[in-house]
Amino acid sequence: MSITQHIAKTIYQPGIGKLIRPISKLLFNHMNEGIVIYHTDGQLVMSNHVAEKYGFLATAAAKNSIYPLYFKINGAMPLPSEQQPLNRLLQGEQDIVQELWLKPGEGKAGSIVRIVGKALHSFRGTPLGFMLVVHDITLSKWHEKRLEVSEQRFKSLFEHNPDMVLWFDLKGKLLSVNSAIEKVTGHSASELIGRSVGELINDGEAWQLQHLLEKVHEGRTIHQETSITNKTGELVYLHATVIPIIVEEQLAGFYIVAQNVTTQKQAMETISRIAYFDSLTGLPNRHSFFETLTATLAQCSTCMDRQFAVLFVDLDRFKLINDTLGHRAGDFLLEQTALRMRKCIGNNGTIARLSGDEFIILLTKAGAQEAEQLAGKILDEIAIPIVYDNNRLLSTASIGISLYPDHGTSSEQLIQFADIAMYRVKEQGKNNYLFFTSEMNESIVRRTTMEKQLAIALEQEQLTLFYQPQVEASTGKIAGFEALVRWNMPERGLISPLEFIPLAEETGMIIQLGEWVLRRACEQHKRWIDEGLMPVIIAVNISMKQFEDDSLFETIRHILIETKLPPDLLELEITESIGLQGADQVINKLNRLKTLGVRIAIDDFGTGYSSLHYLQKLPIDTLKIDKSFIRDMISVTPDISIVHSIIRLAHSLQLDVLAEGVEVVSQLEMLAALKCERLQGYLFSRPIPAEEARALLLRQKLDEHYR
After folding, report:
1. What average pLDDT does range 590-597 have in this prediction?
2. Would the pTM of this model clear 0.85, i.e. be above it?
3. What letter would DSSP give residue 173?
4. Distance of alpha carbon 5 from its chain centroid, rounded?
5. Alpha-carbon dihedral of residues 39, 43, 48, 51, nearest 10 degrees?
6. How far, in Å, are 53, 75, 154, 157, 165 from residue 111 at the CA level?
7. Which of 131, 161, 314, 336 is spaced 20 to 30 Å from 427 by Cα?
8. Which among 432, 427, 546 is positioned nearest to 496, based on CA atoms?
9. 535: DSSP letter
10. Domain annotation for the chain: domains and CATH numbers
11. What torsion do the CA atoms of 317, 319, 321, 325 make, to the nearest 10 degrees?
12. pLDDT value of position 12
């Protein structure tokens, strides 16, 4: 039974167009031939996917279309209407076979097809419609002798093909080419005819040639990716189909139909670069690194004594550089740092950029000694200043190291443990490297536990405020207090802020915590004022995340309204690094805060990169000198000069100066001589609970009363 008969027998319907057998529907949609079903009135009601490519569409728009167009097999003369397949069936013919030239649509290439037509009847002989089966015989026509196809038709197929068509003899000598060859290669046909196929392809792919010719001599059609060099020396990628020419069952030569896929190839390479490489540094990205690490682990699983190291690298002070000098400076720092680290690694491993200022290194065939040597080398390289736009970019790095198989045997473990070790370096002062230890993992567990407990502490009022006095240098009187939060954990007692403040910063709880501190400090001070105690300045630290929070202004405004504290008694302390990021935005935000009537102080002054020009623009009231300068001003002469310069600078800008970290009388005397207005430190008092702070204010009130 022919395929046409089979399909005809599987179609049975009350109304044509329904396939009632699942196997028939599957066959209908997955056949290599085009299948078209018509109603008895000639209306197209069904076509499979292959038929649609030839222009047979069962859509409303297709009803008024002139396509597909039929031509005689020579491709030049339109087929008369009465000779067209459907019309012949409509005129009463039961079975037809025609070889035609068919054009499916405007701008689409035509094909030589064999159309088999059949009238369809029910089992009782009732006419149901008509069916056309379309076979593409274009390639087979190419294989036939020239006498079987007119010279004009053959030339049309050959010359007007948009792809390159090359005709070779059995020895691989080029006999003829079409005009597309010049568009792709820049060479004319006369320059190429007579050359061998081996001369046309690139030397790097010549090894495939012998294998290709062997298959051709076996009479097999081959699909091959290859490349050639055009006349201007550019590489051109081709998708080639090699077709044997069979004449009277004998191999007479072969055609190569080659499509230029250079654009697609380049697009795929671009997509690959985006998927696997970092656009800024050119390093492999996270996805690429994980694939490399997974492959390395798979290799190690078959080799018992194999070892390697993972190094997690994070740049120190990158955010400060990025914020003070701009993103271009930050990007330049990342690019140069990546180059330096890649040079350190050489061919001994892989480095990837994870995100931001984080990099990760896979050091293959290496143990602890090799990893330690590399880490030290990287630290030395990164510490060398990088010059950008007349600025010396000074950076260091924190590096955590994990070893396979000592610390883990999975990619997740090795990366996590290297990350944990890196954070331990950060905690211990940065600019160093550490190997992972089990103790670090226990520390992470404790940290996670503390995170949960801190959330509970905020809900259950386990937090309390301590107050450190700020005194007038000239009189010794209390001029204010700095409010400092403490955590009184039921299981452990008072927790150092150095332990939980960074955690609150990381988790985002600092926003809620900061609001709590502001509210409690303002409420407490207002109660002291209502008791008749001396109004003094209450200073509250504002963290980076708080300052960046868009709701900060409204939060402070509501707290001042609710507590009724005079705004000029509240001093907001921001760090110098906050004051330097995004200059215009910071100035605008500070100006808006000043409209509330509050005071603003720059904390830890001297540790950043403030310029006089920039400082003049900031709407601030106080400079708070970092305690590191105060600590060394007795024994280190330059620090005295620095402190003196800061005080003179502040006074020239009509700002108050507060020195923190005052611990001995000699520091007090020197700062008083330098006209520093306020002092803070252990010489006067450690941070104390609210009741003790109240007692100091009460004693000062009584002293003034009886003086």
Report:
1. 94
2. no
3. B
4. 57
5. 130
6. 11, 9, 12, 9, 16
7. 336
8. 427
9. P
10. 31-142 (3.30.450.20), 161-265 (3.30.450.20), 277-436 (3.30.70.270), 451-627+685-699 (3.20.20.450)
11. -170
12. 43
